Amino acid sequence: MSWLTPDDSEDPYADYAERLRVRPNPKANKPRTKRRPEHAESITGMITGVDRGRYSVLVPEDSDPADARERDVTAARARELRRTPIVIGDRVQLVGDTSGDEGSLSRIVRVDERATLLRRSADDSDRVERVMVANADQMLIVVAAANPEPRVRLVDRYLVAAYDAGIQPLICITKTDLADPDPFLAHFSALEVPVFRSAYDAWPLDEIRASLAGKTTVFVGHSGVGKSTLINALVPEADRAIGHVNVVTGRGRHTSSSSVALRARTPNASDGDTGWVIDTPGVRSFGLGHVTSEGILRGFTDLAELIEACPRGCTHQEDARDCELNLAIENGELDASGAARVESLRRLLK
Predict the structure, then answer these.
(1) How do 260-264 and 275-279 pair as beta strands?
(2) How far apart are CA 218 and CA 120, in angstroms?
(3) CATH topology of domain 117-279
(4) Where in the chain is the domain with CATH 3.40.50.300?
(5) Is 2.40.50.140 the CATH number for 43-111?
(6) Strand, coil or helix: what is 27?
(7) How far is CA 315 from CA 50, 293, 341, in A?
(8) CB burial class (10 A; 0-12, 13-18, 19+) of residue 131?
(9) What gap in Å lies between CA 173 and CA 189, rounded to an integer?
(10) Mind giving me the DSSP string for 31-61?
(11) According to CATH, where is 2.40.50.140 located in the chain?
(12) Contact by Cβ (8 Å): 293, 311
């Protein structure tokens, strides 16, 4: 059947738009927008654990800052955050069921601005960064004097990552009853990094707790150095698994499989004196592929004055022309420890 009539012969499509039937489909015809709801009713929490897409979040029991009570909430990320990494230490905004009751699930709708961000890569050739911890104030590098043998360059890498992130480094050397730690610690004496020493069943817990008070401290270290043992001593309820060193390979077995934030309370202290301890899985390598040369140089503050005097574009390598580092070694301005620091710097820059 034709829609045309004799009167339409001159312009058969004159009123086509008026006769076109448009089927209602509000969902399909709704204009798209990138604006997200403000979630004015959201509450703030801190990420303390991550497990297969579910996040443990600590939120205040009451909006009153004087009320120190807290509760644990389980949350999932909102769809708009699917490309945003959410890690231990993040402060996030939650909506939905934030009661913390068994079976309840809230939703993370926003990640607050981070003060610091600790990152690593799989290896030095990998430019893709892995976000480890957010909002940490300090990094406690746990290293053994022996069994497993301490690795200077691994500690150098930790220091570079800490300085690059704007985090204060600390060193705890364990198993000092097995070997003299002084030759190893001499490599870092010029950096003035605080050092804690411990022997078997003799941890300087009071000193370490004092350094943790009011701070968020991420613990890092090679597998088998005693990191989990130290955390269990500081936070008895943590019950972190403790591994052993393989007598054949001399390597530690991975025991901490995921990162977790734990409250470190000082006995008979107020809540303001408590700190946060973030335990991370033990690693045998720490890639710095995401760190720029400037970031690496920030990790060697003891060499900063010499580096600033180098000619523009200096690579700071041994074959670099007029490099102040070479001149300082030749003139005896740097002792054996300083020369070793230069060697570590050059290996990392390569």
Answers:
(1) antiparallel
(2) 14
(3) Rossmann fold (3.40.50)
(4) 117-279
(5) yes
(6) helix
(7) 41, 9, 16
(8) middle
(9) 14
(10) PP-------TT-EEEEEEEEETTEEEEEEES
(11) 43-111
(12) no
In the numeric block, which tokens belong to residue 182? 């002084």
Q: 């979630």: which residue's tokens?
A: 39
Mean pLDDT of the chain: 83
Lowest average pLDDT, out of 152-161, 218-227, 267-276, goes to 267-276
Whole-number Cα distances in Å, 322 to 43, 298, 308, 309, 343:
57, 21, 13, 10, 17
Residue type, 191: L
DSSP one-letter code for 113: P
E-strand stretches of 103-149: 106-111, 117-120, 130-134, 138-144
Q: What is the pLDDT of residues 246-256, one digit of tens each?
A: 433 344 444 44
> Which residues, in sequence order, are CB contacts of 223 under 8 Å at separation 6+?
148, 243, 251, 252, 253, 254, 255, 282, 283, 284
- pTM value? 0.78
Per residue in 129-178, pLDDT (tens digit) is 788 999 999 999 999 999 999 999 899 889 988 988 889 999 999 999 99
Tracing tokens 């955390």 back to the chain, one arrives at: 231
Report DSSP letters for 189-231, one per residue: GGGT--EEE-BTTB--HHHHHHHHTT-EEEEEE-TTSSHHHHH
